[in-house]
Design a protein that fits this description.
5-stranded parallel sheet, 15% strand, 6-stranded parallel sheet
């Protein structure tokens, strides 16, 4: 049996729930010292170090002149993709753009009768770095990562969007990635990956500009590098393994449930697929479907290991208990395969993204629905949100006092400053109010 179903009230079930609730783990520190050394090398040696690592791990013959994707390569990319891809790409861009435009924040001002003006000025960061993993040497280009990271940055008004992705052995970048980047206005693209790519974005080199925000998924070296530079710039998040929780009642179809569990499990062996159902009969049907559908997958070995090692099937007493469990777990992707998902929605408090109904696979959100697929994992949906336009925005407070306003507030300011022992703070008010 691939996954052993457990009842929530059993000893095994309670132990399983405890493990799910405590699944948060810090970034893998097994590579911490190595990543620190890589970052130090790039910080001190710049392009030379970036090329050295790139030649060692990705493209042995890459030269400095080829570090940046050339105009010729950008143009050639369009000749290497077909019309079907361009049509799908256009549809995805339209949907993601339309959704994220609603997220843009406005500056605002508040005035008081005594002449005080306060407010908030919303401005984009100057530069953002978009990291796109290589995708098995470029054979599985992660086009969706380009769109989900690049489009919100563009809407925010980021003037300089820099994309980094590791080249293949021949020093090339997938034409699908290059076309996707150009279609959303990104043409500054460099062939560098892993921790040295992140370090280059953080500190800048002669060729690669430093940025203010770094976003994008990656392996343990990318994640650790982002963690180490996060104090000097903003990163999107420290992401754990991808995860899904499906709440299913008697209206759910076993083949749909199994398909979505497998879609999650094929990411990698550490992916987490959880089913919480009110129907014991459904669990047996899902297990049969998992076995049947596994045989048709290109990544069957990965999916099978993920489900065997980390897959969970829990049988709850009723839908209320299932929803309570879902809220407690605070999953990255929450699917509501129930009879009345919209009726359940008001009860959901914690989830990265919520998929409602029997015709809404997570894959729709990954690629085409519009909302961002960069989501909080490991229970962090309790307090954090999806990547969005706000990731690339910063807010400055605005304060303007009139003479009358300072007279009215002066004593209050000085009282609080005196309590904190900050006499110069108090004096800065007193100096202005002399002879007034």
């Amino acid at each position: 049996m691939l996954i052993k179903p457990l009842t929530t009230k059993s000893q095994e079930g309670e132990k399983c729930l405890e493990a799910l609730l405590s699944r948060f783990q810090s970034a893998d520190n097994s590579c911490r010292e190595l990543v620190a050394e890589i970052i130090d090398q790039v910080k001190n040696r710049g392009d030379e170090a970036v090329l050295e690592y790139t030649r060692k791990f990705d493209a042995p013959d890459l030269g400095l002149e080829s570090l940046q994707v050339s105009t010729a390569e950008l143009k050639e990319a369009y000749e290497l993709v077909d019309d079907d891809f361009l049509a799908t790409l256009a549809k995805a861009i339209e949907r993601i753009q339309d959704f994220h435009e609603r997220e843009m924040e406005d500056s605002w001002m508040q005035t008081r009768e005594n002449g005080t003006i306060v407010g908030r000025l919303v401005r984009p960061v100057d530069a953002a770095g978009l990291y796109v993993p290589g995708g098995q040497g470029g054979s599985t280009p992660l086009v969706s990562s380009v769109l989900m990271n690049g489009i919100p940055a563009g809407i925010a008004g980021v003037e300089q969007r820099v994309m980094l992705t590791p080249p293949n052995k021949e020093g090339k970048v997938s034409p699908h990635l290059l076309v996707a980047a150009q279609e959303i206005g990104i043409v500054e693209i460099f062939k560098a990956g892993s921790a040295w790519g992140i370090a280059a974005l953080a500190y800048g080199t002669k060729s690669i500009p430093a940025v203010d925000v770094i976003v994008g998924p990656g392996n343990q070296f990318v994640t650790e590098a982002k963690s180490q530079v996060s104090g000097m710039l903003r990163i999107d998040m420290i992401a754990g393994p991808s995860e899904v929780l499906i709440v299913a009642d008697g209206s759910a179809t076993a083949s749909h449930v199994a398909a979505d569990m497998l879609a999650q499990a094929e990411h990698d062996a550490m992916a987490l697929a959880v089913l919480v159902t009110t129907e014991e009969k459904l669990t047996a049907e899902v297990l049969m479907e998992l076995d049947r559908q596994l045989a048709n997958l290109s990544r069957a070995d990965i999916a099978k290991k993920s489900l065997r090692d980390r897959g969970v099937i829990l049988i709850a007493d009723d839908l209320d208990e299932a929803i309570t469990i879902a809220n407690d777990i605070a999953i990255e992707h929450l699917e509501l395969m129930v009879n009345d998902p919209w009726g359940v929605l008001p009860q959901i408090r914690h989830a990265g993204a919520i998929f409602l109904g029997h015709h809404t696979p997570e894959a729709a959100g990954d690629y085409l629905a519009g909302p961002n697929h960069v989501l909080p994992t490991m229970g962090t949906a309790r307090y954090s949100s999806a990547l969005g336009v706000e990731t690339f925005l910063k807010k400055s407070s605005i304060i303007s006092y009139s003479e009358q306003a300072l007279k009215e507030d002066g004593d209050h300011i000085r009282l609080l400053a005196s309590l904190e022992g900050l006499t110069a703070h108090a004096a800065s008010v007193t100096e202005r109010l002399k002879d007034k």
